[in-house]
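Subject: mismatched residue count in predicted assembly?

I count 703 residues in my input, but I want to confirm that the predicted structure covers every chain. Input:
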Amino acid sequence: MYTAAMAGALADVTGVETIKTLVACLGVPDFTVDELAQQAGVSSRTVDTVVRRYQYAFDRMPNGKQDRPGRPRVRWRLRTDHLDEVLEAVDSYQSALGPGWRSEVADAPGPDTVETSLIMAAAAITRGSDDPEQAKQLIAAAQNSLAAAGFGPDGSPWTEQPDQELAGRARFIAAVADVADSCLSHDQQRIDEAQARAMPLLEDAKRYMPASEWLPLAQKVLDAPGTVLSAPVLVEENSVSYFRKLFPTLRARLRKKDVPAGFVFMTDTRAKLAASLIPVTSLFNFENPAEPKLKWAVTAKSEDWVVVSRKPEVLAPAAEHGADFILHRKNETAKTEIANAVNSKAAWKVEGIHPPAPLQQSQANLRQP
Amino acid sequence: MYPVDAWRVHAALAHQLLDTWPVCPKDHQIVQSELEDWSLRAENNADKYLRLLIGRLRSAGVQQRVLDALDGVQDQLEHVDEYLRSMFEAALGLTRDCYQRWADWSVAGVDLKLGAVTNPVYPDLAGFGELGVVACVPPREEPGAPAIVKLTFIPGLLGPPSWASVPYLLCHELICHVNQAGPMSSEDPFGEGWMDLVALQLHNHWAGKIFPWAPALARSAGARLSDDVLRRWRGLPEPHMTTRAVRSRGREAARWVEDELKQLTRTNRRSVPSELIRLSLQLNRASPTLAGRIEFISKVNDRSNLRRQAGLLVQLRRWLEDTEKAADKVLSFT
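Triage response: the counts match. Full output below for your records.
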């Protein structure tokens, strides 16, 4: 039976202290209140209160030889048949803690732990697997490693503010893990959201990660079957209605100064933060094989063109001009392929891929403060 | 001079210098300098090269102890393969017995293969006579074929510390990889980090049996090499940056579990085989996928999640109490 004083004492013991005490008692064969208090880093009063609260789960051990005069200290042992109950109690207390619970129960990891854990998280995500079960395990491993490095599953730190480089790497790794996880769900909306979140971080992470770590992670994001155009595009005027039908969230932006004649500057409203401010890709819908030649006559370069058509015969003239060609068979597949092409061009900005000549001038203008 | 002849000569020299190496530090640089220049020597015969090498060392002003030791190098040359075979057989027998007693041994046969390369394998700056040998278990050509442990020597670095690290390398390959249930990968934190700690502990216990000529040097060389392959620095090339980080995480996880097992059993630090060793041999047989191993290590290392930590402790307690000691539950703790 609990006394009023005991109930008051119980109320004083926080969830974190209770968790620490219960975990500590799982880690020793038996203990005295003082020993466990030292082990758990809590007060003896806390241990005493928790032992009383869960006294049915503990056996009082026979008094052994005394190492000093005075009243013998009571030794307790957690009963084997109550392990699951203790586990449930820990679970319940941890679930009741606020969002910042990790910082309350654990010390911030050291620099070497942070560094090696981030590398391990990136390696787990990069590895991937064709087996869905193993792919899930690798995603979980990445998230656990982020936690070991001091970051939550969304990449935000649970420790004190880490340096910018570590925070940037963690945010990107977490975002890639989220993309990989969303791909396993086969839920198009989730994939789109995760990819749209990851794209701007991909750009940011370039600054903080070695290429050997960044490239395979970036590839994971870019290969995801998302449909969000995460960078602005230049859409050829006559193709606007076609692309608006495919991407209803595509909106024209009034940026006459920066846009070459015959093109419309458009952005996908689902991309809350664009991966790039500058359009790298021009989109065309051609249904007539002669059209690419006509357009070629009015624009200097076509390496950044993405030509979409329902007609396979458009492939040859498009390829002749160095443009990417996407054959529009099914809407969903075409959307994914267009989004991947736009996002990849924005991410790589590969040497030799330049916007049409008039835009190069306007890019220079855009970079002005 | 071909590397295949040079490494045998250097191994003979290293074996003969095992006793004197720790007490003649001033001569380390002289020996290292001669080892490095092996490829400049015109002799294409091992005996001639050995005579040249000994002559050069004698004229380089090494201490009397080293001079005395050089007299016996010629005799050692014909025993090099025998020494390696003896180390391999001893390590294999001890490993097999250990697995059979505490887990199971699934390997039909294991062969030793030797090779040599000219260039250093590790990106590290080697100490005198160090990093002159590497080991691996190549993928089996067909299921049921004997496993192969391959030792590859780098003659220019093969001094006494490298020679004394052969037992550790053999233990690593035999304990970590030859009998492992899952596929091999250099990015496996369990196989390369956790199990490496176990291999090092068993090696230290067995050093007198595997390397009776200088067990203390074997222990120190093994410990140094095991630490070397964890060291990272800015600019360390891939794949070393990733594999070393992953090894570190695996070792960290093993150390934490070892501490917990010691607390739970209140055992003496030096008891061998420790509970960690017994558990690890079983885990190495119970974990069939690389993804599962990676996830296991990541869960052990996430100490900010006390619920999960409690889950692992419960499974460790149950494993300790269970006479059959089924480790797969420890592996899948939540």
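The radius of gyration of chain A is 30 Å. Marking this ticket as 'not a bug'.
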